[in-house]
Amino acid sequence: MGRARKKKKVLIKDIAYQRIQLLFSFAENEARQSNLEWSNRYAYLARKIGMKYRIRLPPELKRRICKQCNSYLLPGKTSRVRLKNNNVTVTCLNCGNQKRYPYKN
Ligand SMILES: [Zn+2]
């Protein structure tokens, strides 16, 4: 019985994770159409689900949300991406916050 319960918990996390990915794809869609209010809303919901179920967002999704103002970051639209000395600098165009991480091939 203990095992079954554990299995169920994993399943819930799985569904939550799928929902997060879906929300991020919605966010991207809305950002592309300049519906920034909606894209930010979807990003917020995705983060909230992640926190609720204690799911660590993969780095590629984490980078899509501004740490400072929680805006959804779409390169070329709501964020500016620059490559410099093997580092990627992402600037949030909403608040100007910059984030740097190493660039990997
Ligand atoms: Zn920001």
From TrEMBL:
<feature type="binding site">
    <location>
        <position position="95"/>
    </location>
    <ligand>
        <name>Zn(2+)</name>
    </ligand>
</feature>
<keyword id="KW-0963">Cytoplasm</keyword>
<dbReference type="InterPro" id="IPR007175">
    <property type="entry name" value="Rpr2/Snm1/Rpp21"/>
</dbReference>
<comment type="function">
    <text>Part of ribonuclease P, a protein complex that generates mature tRNA molecules by cleaving their 5'-ends.</text>
</comment>
<feature type="binding site">
    <location>
        <position position="92"/>
    </location>
    <ligand>
        <name>Zn(2+)</name>
    </ligand>
</feature>
<feature type="binding site">
    <location>
        <position position="66"/>
    </location>
    <ligand>
        <name>Zn(2+)</name>
    </ligand>
</feature>
<comment type="similarity">
    <text>Belongs to the eukaryotic/archaeal RNase P protein component 4 family.</text>
</comment>
<dbReference type="GO" id="GO:0008270">
    <property type="term" value="F:zinc ion binding"/>
</dbReference>
<keyword id="KW-0479">Metal-binding</keyword>
<dbReference type="GO" id="GO:0005737">
    <property type="term" value="C:cytoplasm"/>
</dbReference>
<feature type="binding site">
    <location>
        <position position="69"/>
    </location>
    <ligand>
        <name>Zn(2+)</name>
    </ligand>
</feature>
<keyword id="KW-0255">Endonuclease</keyword>
<dbReference type="GO" id="GO:0030677">
    <property type="term" value="C:ribonuclease P complex"/>
</dbReference>
<dbReference type="GO" id="GO:0001682">
    <property type="term" value="P:tRNA 5'-leader removal"/>
</dbReference>
<comment type="subunit">
    <text>Consists of a catalytic RNA component and at least 4-5 protein subunits.</text>
</comment>
<protein>
    <recommendedName>
        <fullName>Ribonuclease P protein component 4</fullName>
        <ecNumber>3.1.26.5</ecNumber>
    </recommendedName>
</protein>
<dbReference type="InterPro" id="IPR016432">
    <property type="entry name" value="RNP4"/>
</dbReference>
<dbReference type="GO" id="GO:0004526">
    <property type="term" value="F:ribonuclease P activity"/>
</dbReference>
<dbReference type="Pfam" id="PF04032">
    <property type="entry name" value="Rpr2"/>
</dbReference>
<keyword id="KW-0862">Zinc</keyword>
<keyword id="KW-0378">Hydrolase</keyword>
<keyword id="KW-0819">tRNA processing</keyword>
<keyword id="KW-0540">Nuclease</keyword>
